[in-house]
Amino acid sequence: MMSRFNPQAVDTRWQKVWEEAGTFTADTAAPKPKSYVLEMFPYPSGRIHMGHVRNYTMGDVLARYRRMTGHEVLHPMGWDAFGMPAENAAIEKKVHPGEWTRANIAAMRSQLKRLGFALDWTRELATCEPEYYGHEQALFLDLYEAGLVYRKESAVNWDPVDMTVLANEQVIDGKGWRSGATVERRKLSQWFLKITDFAEDLLAGLDELDHWPDKVKLMQENWIGKSRGLRFRFKLSEPITGQSQLQVFTTRPDTIFGASFVAVAADHPLAEAVAAKDRKAAAFVAECQAGGTSAADIESAEKLGFDTGLTAAHPFEPEWALPVYIANFVLMDYGTGAIYGAPGQDQRDLDFARKYDLPVNRVVAPSADEADEAVGDEAYTGGGVIVNSRWLDGLSIEEAIATVIARAEEEGWGEGTTEWRLRDWGVSRQRYWGTPIPIAHCAECGPVGVPEDQLPVVLPEDIDFETPGNPLDRHPTWKHVDCPTCGEPAQRETDTLDTFVNSSWYFIRFASQPDEKPFDKAEAEAWLPVGQYIGGVEHAILHLLYARFWTRALNRIGRLDVKEPFAGLFTQGMVTHETYQLGDGSWLSPDEVRRDGDDWVHIERGEPVTAGRIEKMSKSKKNTVDPDPIVDQYGADAVRWFMLSDSPPERDLPWTEAGIEGAWRFIQRLWRLVESNEAGTGEDPDLDRKLHRTIAGMAEDIEALSFNKAVAKIHELANAIEKAGASASRDFAVRTLVRLVAPMAPHLAEQGWEALGETGMVADAAWPEADPALLVDDEVTIAVQVNGKLRDTVSAAKGTSKADLEALALGSEKIMRQLDGGTPKKIIVVPDRLVNIVA
Ligand code: ANZ
Ligand code: ZN
């Protein structure tokens, strides 16, 4: 009797079987090749979304496939559980961040479990638990001891109403996102990690990451930002605070004859000295210091300057006195915090020059003929030759750069240098829900690391969010401790670590999780590096860079031999959905609208709805689809199948009702094939060939993460099986099909494996082997000639006998027409190649 595949019963059944058998528990001691498959762990925001489902399905297919190909697989899952949303929930909903986070984790864990992912849940971790962050504190202290952690003053965005430091993204148009107060720039003593120590190595290491997308490597390269250039000193018209020179940095010394002004950052000592004597200058500096600290804020702001009245003498033309400005677009912490502007060749300098009526000279042109062309509103930033530059004229940009650097070094007023865009990583956060920084501040001893036997420094639970500011700072008792060194009263550090620290080493803790230390070296190295890491491209820069740094830092202090954490990286596309809007512009969710012919209407109100662009699913546009009801209705396998089938994994996947229904119907079709299978006899060579090609092709596709191609091959194979009559080949093909779909549709596969009377679980079965003999093309094309001229081709099985080939050739209509009833004089046959008829 035929029955429908019933995922509601089947899914939970097999999930329980896998769990009870510990099928996906990774065994470090297993004598098999190891494979570490990891997807970026989620932030426990409350519910999983389709983006998670897609990401984790891809990793799951690879993990299950690797198991079937004889690997011991580590495929863990955990929670990136510290961060601001929990604190916001605490303020808005009056629930403790820990309670909110743990409830979300529980909800999301059960959502993930319903999808049947082959995860090793015994290694689950949440970064907000002392069992995790205590080890992080120990690692932080190790790095402190090794000189890779230090403290320095640094500017932060300060919200004077909420009395808190804001992240750059919390500053909107210069105002605090919650309070609306104008944000101030304040200096605070903060903790930094010396990522710049590794700049060269982080850059060089990219070359060896053959299994990373080029675009991600390029983004990392740009972020690290290695620039070669010249540092040199201008002589000032009068000394200021004892300094008669001003040092600038340029990457384009070839433009030196185009210099028309000099500018310093608002926090530059020269600016401060001028401001001390001049009220207007002081007001300008204060204005620059208001507003956000992010590079993007600075980049987009209007270019403003203040003329200090000082001038700087041009190094080659001392009589040229260049005005010295304080400018809002010059950053203090890059290069020397001072520049010269060459408006003909730099857009920012041009905007500035036009605004303050400074000379604009062209010193680079596409060719020497264009030397006199005026510069309009656009600076010329392209290549070409140097013009209007005395003895540099006619040189290429590169030659001119080298020439100027050589002269500066010879004459002693400058040096060729390398500057890095990469800054040390500021990890101090003035918030509660994060890893406490394990330091005590003592009046006598300064900052002292908390001794290992006093770790973890646990976050206090009894905190209050009613009053503004950092709850750790305001806590009545928590921060008061005795100095670990001298025993005098001291104060705990009340800053917590950036959550990116949590995600910089979680993959190591997954690999090895002893109680007494962060990880065991040998055990961790049995798994590391992660063979395949999968996640969103939004983490292409910071998370990956920090994890690469952290791994190198551990390597430097001898804790690990590996340097690169992720051997393979894949960034998947997003799940998208059409958007819907009412006439007033308000967004509607997909379940509030229905189709009406070619139009859309609001289900309850009947109002017309405009269907808009297909965009990434997001709460703000209400175009999300919750996975839970979809799993209820269609089952895990259909959802997984749809996530894999319709688009290449690196592209966006538009969610459609038709798509998920199609996947569901195909799952049912596969089930019918299994259910109706009968043991036949005899061979079906065509089906055998199709099967073995599918086996080989799918292995390649899965290894290349081309899941949509693998799915397409399953479709073809299913078609071929459906068409074939009963035979031993067909029976074998159905059994093999079940193994082939096991990574993608694991519940159906287990149920089918059992229904076919196979033993054990399909999850433990071996990936089928392709027979090489059946992979070669065994149809050959035979050329048929008449008197040496090609008249037709026929196809035949390889190895067809001479007599059969002769008959085939003579049977061709074209040849019969050629012969026109005559009898051939002679027929020459070259097996597998040609038949030549002499007429
Ligand atoms: C003169 C010049 C002429 C420049 C020209 C550029 C183009 P990258 O390549 O990113 O390293 N600069 C240097 N220090 C700065 C600071 N602290 N804040 C803002 N801008 C700064 O950028 C180096 C270039 O950025 C330098 O080269 C300098 O302007 C500017 F046609 O010098 B250039
Ligand atoms: Zn002390």
For the largest beta-sheet, the strand count, sense and barrel status come to: 7 strands, mixed
What class do helices, strands and sheet pairing give? alpha+beta
Q: How far apart are the termini?
A: 64 Å
Number of discrete helical segments = 26
Average predicted local confidence, pLDDT: 93
Q: What overall geometry do the principal axes of the alpha carbons give?
A: globular
What share of the residues lie within helices?
Answer: 25-40%
Could you tell me the strand content as a percent range? 15-25%
- How large, in whole angstroms, is the Cα Rg? 35 Å
Ligand types: ligand ANZ, zinc ion
Low-pLDDT residue intervals, each spanning 5 or more residues: none
Give a count of the beta strands, DSSP E runs of length 2 or more.
Answer: 37
